[in-house]
């Protein structure tokens, strides 16, 4: 047994690697920059965890979400790894200071792009040996950096302070253009690239056009209440997440809503309950998803047109991690494409906002914190007109991405084939349960909830009988 397989068995309890894992890990150990694109459920965490045990120094993992960090920290601790910490807003000032003073004692340090701008943290980092840096969910550099979280772009300058440190970029989806943006931002030097097929044969694609919103809601509630979960229902509105849950609870479905305006502790609790099987359905905005380690998600439902093919692939990829048959359903009306445009443009600054930032030093009161942060970043780099031109281009690109996905759902070509073509991949083998266009047995994919309810009744009856007897 070679050293890598030995550690795989000792530390992680596996006897063999999945496709691509060993090759990627070997490149990391050799100190090379690496871009790895693997679908959700293909073991991306192992790619940065295992090499750490064969290399000196600390691994710094830059992660986009607090919940994702906390989940990965808990996973490592459950494996017996004590030298792990997440440096984020969950820590008090005193806790952060304690961690900074003992930074060399950690093997894994999880942090956010924003924390990389903290001078105290950077002084502490400069005093320890860094084995390599990990950009987890690296597509966020392109997806969020330019228009939502500019601190993702500041990673580029931060990495220049560690010129000899290699970088491992991990993501589930990335077009060729996104890969180029990742390379440029992370200063990658002739990186080793591994691209796994993005096809998920055990996920069937279902798309249904309905006449109006009322019919759409009725369809969704009917689907959830008559078929098995676990599942995730994605919607664009925080209010809708709560409305769906209210109706599902009335019908006896164990459901909870999840959106960005909730308290962080509440979000973490709901995520844990879902992962532990205490909830069958989550009704969520796209704030829910990354870091969800639940193997048996059977259904993903969208009640809207997502903002891009990449976002859609990320969200449906949370199903079928156990390799069993699942289904991704999307229901829409003709008005949903305009609604998608409206939602996508909400967070972008208008020309008046840009002028206000460039002509005024303090605009915190007039603009949202997010808009102010975005524009202050570009103010350091671009002129007022260049910033206007940039956001005009971003808006046009967003509209095109939404229209591209909408067109994909409306035409008569295989959905699976079109999704893969977007990432320059050809469909090699069509699964039995493919998509609604191909009519490959979609109705055989779903399990009736009535069967599950009968099993639950039998189990509850046996449990009550045991309590009486013993």
UniProtKB/TrEMBL annotation:
- CDD domains in the record: DEXHc_RecQ
State one molecular function term (GO).
3'-5' DNA helicase activity
Which Gene3D superfamilies would you find in this protein's record?
Answer: P-loop containing nucleotide triphosphate hydrolases
Naming one, the record's GO cellular component terms include: cytoplasm
Ranges of residues in domain Helicase ATP-binding:
25-192
Keyword Isomerase part of the UniProt annotation: no
Q: Which GO terms describe its biological process?
A: DNA recombination; DNA repair
Q: Which UniProt keywords apply?
A: ATP-binding, Helicase, Hydrolase, Nucleotide-binding
The UniProt record lists the Helicase C-terminal domain at 216-364
SUPFAM superfamilies attached to this UniProt entry: P-loop containing nucleoside triphosphate hydrolases (SSF52540)
The protein depicted here goes by the name ATP-dependent DNA helicase RecQ
Protein source organism: Psychrobacillus glaciei
């Amino acid at each position: 047994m070679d050293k890598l397989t030995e550690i795989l068995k000792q530390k992680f309890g596996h006897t063999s690697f999945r496709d691509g894992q060993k090759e990627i890990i070997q490149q990391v150990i050799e100190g090379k920059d690496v871009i790895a694109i693997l679908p959700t459920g293909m073991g991306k965490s192992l790619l940065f965890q295992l090499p750490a045990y064969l290399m000196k120094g600390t691994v710094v993992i830059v992660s986009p979400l607090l919940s994702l960090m906390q989940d990965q920290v808990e996973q490592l601790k459950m494996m017996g790894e004590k030298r792990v910490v997440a440096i984020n807003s969950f820590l008090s000032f005193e806790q952060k200071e304690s961690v900074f003073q003992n930074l060399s004692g950690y093997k894994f340090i999880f942090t956010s792009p924003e924390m990389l701008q903290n001078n105290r943290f950077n002084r502490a980092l400069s005093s320890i040996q860094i084995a390599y840096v990990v950009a987890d969910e690296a597509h966020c550099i392109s997806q969020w950096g330019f228009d939502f979280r500019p601190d993702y772009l500041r990673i580029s300058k931060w990495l220049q302070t560690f010129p000899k440190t290699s970088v491992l970029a991990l993501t589930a989806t990335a077009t060729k253009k996104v890969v180029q943006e990742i390379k440029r931002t992370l200063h990658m030097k002739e990186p080793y690239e591994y691209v796994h097929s993005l096809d998920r044969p055990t996920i069937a694609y279902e798309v249904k056009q309905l006449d109006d919103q009322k019919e759409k809601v009725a369809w969704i509630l009917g689907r959830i209440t008559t078929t098995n979960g676990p599942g995730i229902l994605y919607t664009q509105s925080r209010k809708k997440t709560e409305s769906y849950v209210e109706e599902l609870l009335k019908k006896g479905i164990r459901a909870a809503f999840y959106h960005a305006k909730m308290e962080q502790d509440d979000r973490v609790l709901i995520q844990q309950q879902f992962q532990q099987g205490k909830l069958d359905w989550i009704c969520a905005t796209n704030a829910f998803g990354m870091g969800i380690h639940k193997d048996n998600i059977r259904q993903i439902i969208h009640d809207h047109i997502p903002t891009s093919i990449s976002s859609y692939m990320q969200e449906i990829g949370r199903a079928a991690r156990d390799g069993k048959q699942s289904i991704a359903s999307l229901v829409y009306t003709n008005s949903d494409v305009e609604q998608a445009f409206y939602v996508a443009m909400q967070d972008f600054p208008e020309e008046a906002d840009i002028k206000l930032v460039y002509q005024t030093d303090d605009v915190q009161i007039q603009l949202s914190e997010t808009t102010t942060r975005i524009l202050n970043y570009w103010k350091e780099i671009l002129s007022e007109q260049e910033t206007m031109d940039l956001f005009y281009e971003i808006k046009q690109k967003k509209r095109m991405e939404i229209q591209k996905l909408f067109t994909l759902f409306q035409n008569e070509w295989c959905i699976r084939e079109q999704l893969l073509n977007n990432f320059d991949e050809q469909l090699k083998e069509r699964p039995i349960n493919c998509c609604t266009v191909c009519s490959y047995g979609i109705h055989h994919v779903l399990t009736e909830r009535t069967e599950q309810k009968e099993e639950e009744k039998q189990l509850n009856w046996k449990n009550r009988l045991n309590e009486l007897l013993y």
